Task: structure prediction
Amino acid sequence: MRLIRSTLTFFILCSAISCLHAQDIKWNEIEPGIWKATVGKPESFNLLTASGAIAYHAGLTDMGGTPFPLLETDIYAKVTDGKTYLRFPLDRTEQLYGFGLNFKTVQQRGKILTLHVDNYEGRDNGRTHAPTPFYISSKGYGVFINSARYIKIYAGSAVRTDSKNPPEVQDRNTNENWSARPYSDGVEMLIPAEGVEIYVLGGPTMLDAVRRYNLLNGGGCLPPRWGLGFTQRVQRLSNASDVANEARAFSERGYPLDFIGLEPGWQSKSYPCTFEWDKIRFPDPRAFVQGMLKQKIRLNLWTNPYISPEATIYKQIAPYTGSHSVWVGAVTDITMPQARNIFFGEMSKNKIDIGISGYKIDEVDGGDEYLWPDVATFPSGHSAEQMRQTYGLMMQRYVTQIYHEKNERTFGLVRASNGGGSSFPFVIYNDYYDHRDFITALINSGFAGVLWTPEVRDSKTGEEWLRRFQSNIFSPMAMINAWASGTKPWSFPEVADQVKQLATLRMKMMPYWYSEFAKYHFKGTPVFKAMVLEPGFANSEQKNSVDNTNLKENPYGKLTTEEIKDQYMAGEYLLVAPMFTGETTRKVILPKGKWYDFYTGKYVGNGEVISVTPGLDKIPVYVKDGGVIPMMPVMLHAPSKNEKVNLEIRYYGEKPGHYLLYDDDGETFDYEKGAYSFREINIVSKNGILKGTLSAPEKGKPNTIGKVTFKKME
Ligand code: GAL
Result:
C-alpha cells in the first residue's frame, strides 16, 4: 500500500515538474566500438552526408570492440516543440573536451555553447571555424551529434529538478561553499530539428574515442610529402615575375620551399571573384605554373566562393544560387550536382588542370555582417543554417574529389569545417593573431578532427617572429602568410639564421611527420594533440584526489583541475612547449616516464614539472623514453614521387624503442589500393647496448628509403 502511494506521489510530482520520459533509444553497433541511434525523424542532410564521409572499416576493425561506455538508461531524448532534446550523464569527476576548435579553453565542462560556423571573434562561445558537435569525456568515451544545425549545448551547467545526483542546497548567508554554479550531472543539448542521429564512441581511453571518431570520418587526411614542407604566401597583388623572384630568393638564400600561395590578385577581380587569371599579372598561366613546377615549386590559389557578375560562369550558375549575395557575389548552392558541375568545373579549368596543386578556401565561415543571413534561401531547399554549417565542409569535399579523380594528392587551407571532415586535406587558419590562443587551438584541433596552423604573418620584433616561427614548424602546415605584410622568413635579420635552421629542421623531420600523418589516416590518431590524450597522463580515477599543492612530486593532481593550454604532443614521441614573446623561462609538465631533450638527448625528468630557460634559439621539445625520430638530410624541397632518400634514425633514452615508419610514393592515392607499407624500426638492447634495425621492404610496395643509419642521442 505504502509502495503504491509513493509511486503515485512520484508520478504526480513528476508531471508537475515535467520529468523526463525517456524515448526508447535503440543503440546499434555500426562498427566495433561505435554505436548509432536515431531520435525522432532525423534530417537526411547532416554532417556526414554533407561531407560524404565513409567509415574506415579496416581501421575500426583493427581497434577491436569495447563495451558500450554508458548506462543506456542514463541517456534521454525527446522531440518537443519541433526540437530535439538530448541529455547525457556526467559524474562528479568527469571532465569534457572537444566541441570544436576553441581558442581559449581546452576543458569544456560547465560551458554553454551554440555551435555555429563562424569567424572566431575572441570568445569560446561555440562560434568558431569548426564547431564540431563531438565531445570526449575523461571517462574514455565520445559523443557525436550528426546534425548540420546550430546546436545549443549545456555541457554540465544546468540542474534538473529530477536529477539523479542533485547538488546540495547551500545557504549563501552562512555557507562559504555556496556556488553560483551548482554541480550539474548532465550534458544537455537542443537541436533545432525534429530528430537527430547520435553516435557514441567507445574507449576505453579518450584517445581511443578520438581515434574512433576520426575513423568514422574515413580516417585522418594523408597529405602529400610536399605538403609537409614549407609554404610561403605572397602579397595580394604579386604577379608572375614577383612569384618567380620569390622562389629564386628562397633558393639563393638556402631556405626550403615547397609551395607558394597566391592571394586574391591572381584573379582578374576578387570579392566577388571571377575565378579567372588576371591577364596582366599572369599573362600565360600554363607556362607560369609549369615553369614553377619544373623548379619543384607548387602553387596554391586563394579563393572565396562568391561569384562576381563579371565571371564567365555567372549567368550559367545564376539559377543555382541563393537568395542573398556575399560582397554582391552569388552564392552557389553546392548541394546541387548541376551547380557543382559548373562551379568545380571552373575551379579545375585552367587551374587544377594546368598543374595548380591546391586551394585556400577563404571566408566560408562568417562573420554574420557579410555572409548570407539565416533568412536566405537556396534553390535546393536546404536552409541557410544548414548551408552555413556545411559550406566549408562541402568545398573541401568537392575540391578533394577533383584531385582524387586525377590521382594526385593536395594539401590546402580552409577557414571552415565541421564534423565529418577529418579526412579532408585542408588546414584551418584565420585572421586572429594571438600566439598563445593559436597554441590552444592547435591542442583543440586534435579533439575536433581538424588541422590548424598557427600561421606567421608579421611581428613587432625579431623575438616575436622567431617565437611564432618555432611553434609554426611544429604544426600541420609550416607557413608564412605574407598576403598583407610582404614578410619573408629573413625579414628580421637578427633572427634570420635561426629561422633558416627551423625551416630546415622541419624538412629533416619530414619522415617523422609523414609517418605520423599516416597514423592519423590509418589509425585515426591525431598528429597534434592535448597532453590529456597522452596515454597514462591524466588518469580520470585520480581526479581531484591529489593534493594540488604537491605539484613537483605529483603533477597529475593539478592536471585534473587545471587545463594545459601551452604544451602539446606532436606525433607519438614529441612534447612541444612553445615559448611566447617576453618569456625567458617556462614550466613544462612531463608525464610519467623518462623524458629527454630533443636536440641533445640529455635526460630532463620524469613525471614532474621542470622549469626551462632554453634561450631565444630553441623551442623546448622533449622525447619520450624509447622515442624514435626518423630524419632525412636537409633538402630544399620535399622528395619527389618515389624518390629514394637516406634516413638517420635517432633514438632516445634507455628503453627499447619501436616505431612504425610509413612509406608510399608520397603523391598519389595508390595507398588506398594497398601500395604502402609500415616498416618496423626496433631499437633493441644487445649486451647492454641499444642497436637499431629496420624491417626489410615489402615486395611490390613503393620503397623510398635509401641508406639508413641509426644515431643514439646522448
Ligand atoms: C582573409 C584571409 C587572409 C587573406 C585575405 C586576402 O580573409 O584570412 O589570410 O587571404 O583574406 O584578402
